[in-house]
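Sequence decides. Our protein:
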Amino acid sequence: MTAAEIITIGTEILLGEIVDTNTRHIALNLRDLGVGLYRTITIGDNVERIAESIRESMQRAEIVITTGGLGPTVDDPTREAVALAVGVETEFIPELWEQIAKRVSLYGRKPTENQKRQAYVPKGALPIENPVGTAPCFIFETERNAVISLPGVPREMETILHNAVIPYIQKRYDLHEIIKVRVLRTSGVGEGRIDEKIGDLEKLRNPTVGLAAHTGVVDIRLAAKAKTEAEANAMIAEVENEIRQRLGKIIFGTDQDKLADVTLAALSKRGWKLVLLESGLEGRLSNQFSKTEDPALIKCENRQLATKELLPALQKLRIESGAEAALGIAFFPGKDEQTAEFSLITPEKEKSRILRYGGHPQNALSWAPNIAINILRRAVMK
């Protein structure tokens, strides 16, 4: 498998001033090309450290992609760092300077002298025009490697990646395989319990199976590498069917499905209306439903409730609203542990329970709504 590594460059990323979105975008596209991503790293604006990282990445992977550090200022060190890593000097490319001047003129300005830095690339590199910005890019080739340097501005990076870099990678490394990914979304059972049931499948080489735990939700990722999309889909389907047989109804959806949306769809199918009541969650329950206009949801109320006040208040709210189903949560933070009281009323049952959460209080604010919505989902789908 052709392998790649991504190096994001910028002290502002290390300081937390901006969020790196480039790595995710590049990673998704490498995945679709069938390229294995071995690791990613962020380096500050230091020529020697960047060069060292590039050399290390070149030993592990054929493709090394850098983003950032191609601007006109002194603290834009990528050109010099790549040159140092591969043992060459930088050279001025008149054609790049013409492209930069033309781009700057579109803004009614003349290029400044320091912008000439952007017309330099490591000697022997393949220049890549930036059609949407002033920072040209380049690819330095060795017999085995391609070091590809892209700008840090996301829209510029994305444009050049799709227009120039992806076609280059496909041709240079003769790529004819794809990687397909499917995510099974579960709720109601922890990561450890799921691992007990499908741990043997997590040892598969192709397709691969992996777990990603969130607060109240666990994702199961299936990834298959094949020559055609149909072949990859068939490989995934076989393993997915086995997982579904083992896990049953704890799987609530796939890929981008949301727990609240799936639950509302089940309510609509039964012709039930829903009201929600929450206390102590800072609106987290209502936020789960804020992006939907499903007619099954009547309203969500936020009140301050004491222990054992939830069920009577929910009973009253259900009657007043005329809803068939009512779901309530009252969250009580504590010094050592947090307590959540859940109540559910449907035409078929009425139940309450108290659960304790020993993690960080802020995580509990996400955990409790997911647990409550899943309780409702399981009741509605029976």
